[in-house]
Amino acid sequence: MLALAWLLPVNVKSLNTALLREAGRETQSVAGFGRELLELDKPGPAALVLETARKVGDPGAGPLGTIYEDFARKHREMMPWGGWDIALEPLLGSRSAAASADSQPVLTFMATQQARENLRRYLGVSRLPGVQTVLQTAELGSTQRFVPANRPGGQPLEAVILLTAYLWQTEHLSSGLQREVRALAETAVRTGQMGELEDFYLDVLTLGRRLNWVQLSELLRTTGSLGTVGQFAHLARVAPEHLPVIYTAALMTKSADRVAHYLITFGQPGVEHLQLALASGEGAVEQLVQRQAPVSHAAGPEFEFGAGFVLRHPELALVAKYAAFLGGVFLLLRAVDTRLFFSVESALRGAFPRMGSGVIAVVLTFIFFVFSEPFLLKAAPVSDYKIKLTIPVIGALAAPAAPASTTPATMDITTILTIVIFAAIQLGMYFICVMKISDIARQSIPSALKLRLMENEENLFDGGLYLGIAGTATALVLQVLHVIDANLLAAYSSNLFGIVCVALVKIRHVRPYKRQLIIESQTAAVTA
To answer: What is the pTM of this model?
Structure first.
């Protein structure tokens, strides 16, 4: 039962890597997803997927790279746009035949005078009310981050407004995104104030300067809200080196919202967890963003045992894990009591109730639960991708300096080893105390004398507390000297185990035995 509890890869607030491997088994790989995009004539997204496949070490990255290069040679005219779309015809006038065949950010084309004129004529006859409302926001003069579109220097805002209307016209915005943009645009036109719509335009500008046409349109198809667009724009600014990984995960799961929320919550470690999931396959990524939990790395070997059962029944597996540990510890304690202390229990006639083993089993199960959940007690580090209020200058949206690295939230092997040593010391102290009680009980002397001998051993029975305090002090000194990693959990676990040991010895053993000796000695005195 203890082996079952140890091997079952299920946790309350984290995902085991074995669980990710099981979830990703026989599902589409990153390289397979990139090949699918090329078959759909979408080389722009496929380029980012290919970069991700190489980063996560996908075995299919090499063949995918060969296929991509062959596609690029045969279809040079599609590469700047990242694919092909009949709706791109109005923009073609802004591009010469000798232009570069490399991928180009979509705003590179939108920012030209000719492209904007073509777009205005094309969108001006649109019958979609939402498109016309978005176009009307170009007449507003109350902006805070852009130069108004109808004034000199307002070309960036005009380009973004035209791009937004163009995405709407060509049905590249999700329905949820359309509703929110339309509501903000109508409010802006009615009040004459750009308001929150300007933030959205700034986010589109950020993404439009980094993604080509098909890359941007495919991303916005999977984006359900303005908040997610803002999160992706923020991630593109603060972590541009991880944009391919983030983009690939969003397209594979068809939910940019959950991917963005995961990364904003967990920061840099979240990117590493996302890469682990991508290396395992599409199913692993789905499991990760659905659970919104960090990945825990086992301190020892990682077992695949029970991973399929955990995926199908996570709540039942969690109950089974800790129930198995509780049952295993209880049976082990009963076996120890029966083997080592059977004669003492018989002599004391019930002073050692069987429920005592159950109480100890519950306490040890709670301790096992705390230490087997790496993210339970340790506070999650502040995400380095949390959105901060900034007012960037148009044309100077370069990514800021790389954020400081964060400390992993999992317990290292030194901390675990320290905790195990403290637990083993207190376990040894517990057996020494019980053996001393057993030794006194076996002596053929009056009960009153046995009672005095028990009182003489009080310092021994309190020994767990002394050892606990000494262990905590030693651990703190070693942490200050950098012999072991700084971790208060490891230090104070010695005190915790000492308190548990002394409580068990005195409540479960000393007090019942003293009570029996007092009764026996008083009975003998009355009889005499």
So the answer is: 0.67
